[in-house]
Design goal:
Elements (H helix, E strand, L loop, with lengths): L1 H23 L2 H23 L9 H32 L2 H22 L10 H31 L2
Helix pairs in contact: 1-3, 1-4, 2-3, 3-4, 3-5, 4-5
Length: 157
């Protein structure tokens, strides 16, 4: 039991380190990596749709979409790891939800503050809001899953 708690928290800190490392990349490097991922996503979309949907007019918007989707994904995963760690410690779903939200948003804010000190980067309240979308998305999915699970338990008692 204790070892599971340590593993859960280790995963939280590993993921926080991953987010920190992404944020520590200089602006130009971060932009280049995002551009590469956007090109890959574009090729993937073209392969499956058989159409060239991304062109010179919407390429910048598509890259921006990919960058913001990365924010949502990073914080979706972080909130999932936080929830599992908190729940492992206290076995209280409501308390785990609240702590997950608070700590995930606090980390999103600290991540933006960290970017003040990175060349070519800066803080963005919009990014914190986008990160919060990832956090709330996980919590809503978890809440819905718990409600369904509890309803099924009630129905089959």
């Amino acid at each position: 039991m204790k070892s599971r708690i340590y593993i859960r928290w280790a995963l939280v800190f590993v993921w926080m380190t991953v987010i920190f490392c992404f944020s520590a990349q200089e602006g130009a490097i971060s932009h280049q990596k995002s551009f590469s991922i956007a090109i890959f996503a574009e090729k993937f979309i073209e392969f499956f749709t058989g159409k060239d949907l991304i062109n010179s007019h919407n390429r910048k918007n598509f890259e921006l979409f990919i960058r913001k989707l990365a924010h949502v994904t990073e914080y979706f995963i972080l909130s999932m790891l936080f929830y599992k760690a908190f729940f492992e410690c206290n076995r209280n779903s409501k308390k785990s939800f609240i702590l997950t939200f608070i700590f995930s948003v606090a980390y999103a804010i600290s991540d933006e503050v960290h970017q003040i000190f990175v060349s070519g980067r800066g803080p963005s309240a919009v990014d914190v809001m986008i990160d919060t979308i990832g956090i709330i998305s996980y919590l809503l999915i978890k809440r819905t899953k718990n409600m369904i699970k509890n309803s099924l338990k009630f129905c089959f008692k």
